[in-house]
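check these tokens.
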Amino acid sequence: MKISGGVEWGLHCCVVLSGATEPVPAAKLAEFHDVSPSYLAKQLQLLSRAGLVRSAQGHSGGYVLTRSAAEITVLDVVEAIDGAESAFRCTEVRRRGPMAAPPERCTTPCPIARVMAAADHAWRESLRAVTIGDLTADVVGTTPPETLDRALAWLRA
């Protein structure tokens, strides 16, 4: 399974937005994370379509979370950016080739499809168990206070 880089940037932006007291412009988020503004804008649009962030207009325009960081899961962000489909797609290999099983013998999912579905479910449940609030608390707990203060001052400037 491969997760796009957009997921990483989306998660970082949500963590930053969770600590912001005012809307943060997309350009400021892009500069803060040293990523292309057009690339980050696409990720923010996807987060917006999913209802996780919204843009605020006006003088102090920018992005804000639509609900508390404790209500947005890592899975919400992953699915907003990369989609909700499983990485594995069963193509019924057992019904192909010279030893193909007839459709009437394939009434249950094959063992490989079952294992992959269980793995996908476990992965999603683990991401559903972690919120942006949890990530933010971890960042706050592992980052020196002076660094956090400088970051917040820079975002406000």
About this structure: The chain has one domain: 5-156.
